[in-house]
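>> received
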Amino acid sequence: QVQLAESGGGLVQVGGSLRLSCAASGLPFSMGWVRQAPGKEREFVAAISWSSDAAFYADSVKGRFTISRDNAKNTVYLQMNNLKPEDTAQYYCNYKQKESDDLTHDYWGQGIQVTVSS
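>> returned
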């Protein structure tokens, strides 16, 4: 069972920055973040491969958020700059474990709150 430890959320003003971290107990295939605002569906934010430099972003965060990783620590980071009120949400760390060539298994963190005040 993979354990995920998230940190770094909080309250910030519009235009401010936060950095989220998620440390995993295992070696992932990829890791990333999704978020869910009250009354809305969960949405993809960003993801990064553990075996290449490939990183992926939602259009809504491109140019403002940067995902990175520390392979030695099995940790993924999400640097969030120029935060907007619409970024307010519960952010969940996602860990993908490769089960076969065509199958991965998802693990989820407990979630961390990010609130952007205007």
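>> The mean pLDDT is 96.
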